[in-house]
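Lecture notes, unit on protein representations.

Consider one protein chain, 338 amino acids long.
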Amino acid sequence: MSVATPPYASDALAEGTVDAVVIGGGAGGLNGALILARSRRSVVVIDSGSPRNAPAEAVHGLLALDGTPPSEILRRGREQVRQYGGRVVHGEVVSAESAAPSVDGDLRFTVTLADGRHITARRILIATGLTDVLPQVPGLAEHWGHSVVHCPYCHGWEVRDEPIGILATGPASINHAYLFRQLTEDLTYFTHGTDLDEDSRARFSARGIRVIDTPVTEVVDDEDGALAGVRLADGQVVARRVVAVAAPMQARTQGLEGLGLPVQDLPKGRGFASGTAGATEVPGVWVAGNVTDLVAQVGASAAAGALAGADINSTLATADTDAALHAIAEASPEAATR
């Protein structure tokens, strides 16, 4: 699922070489850019304008900002990055790759946008997020982020006490059912062609969770367009007001293949591998947020971006010192050895 946010004024793409390019304008990318901009680093955020949580009405579980629309959080974030001299550019990255290093040996990368513009950076932070791969059930996608939900912590309180259906996608859906059972006593588990062992069936029965093995063929709406239930392969309609789906998650890696970043399979999907503070095996490239931590909520993604931004600044400080020594050596070889 990918939904675009309302358009906003885009900054001009910086000329020359910047300290850092942040690919992705969500919470992780903006917080990383904020840390860098406040460290007096030249930083440019490339934002495609299609955050994962765009369909949602509000962000929840985020201290002091619970209930705030995602678009408002991003608007404030862009303003704050710009307040310290950072730039936010609306665009889609189609390639990112290593470039020839500087004369003092510092790293360089070239990032190219879909419209042909390009920018050179010393470091890259990737915070492109992920895509939820929904089951191919007609009518499901239309309610995504509203009556079709994925996270009990993001949406659970808002759908409490409603008749909820779990549309199973695999083993992860079993625990999903236990979490949503905390929120409602009216819970139905649709196996939808997935395996459900006898032990899990017994545990579901003990919690009052109804199990239906007949495949789901479509989502049914009422006359007002609200989700009213699901239709089964035998024609029966099971009334539900909410459907929860533990959809597989895929990191947004398009256009980044040239960096050669390692990708890893995770229990709930696939994302970039990373180490401390989001550093990757590729020198000069960091990752933050859902592109590497598939289950991170907004707060965790923002925190990861901040850690990555601080780590990037630290490596740049070291590179700046190395460059200063190199300049002294070039000007006076004897002075550099004193």
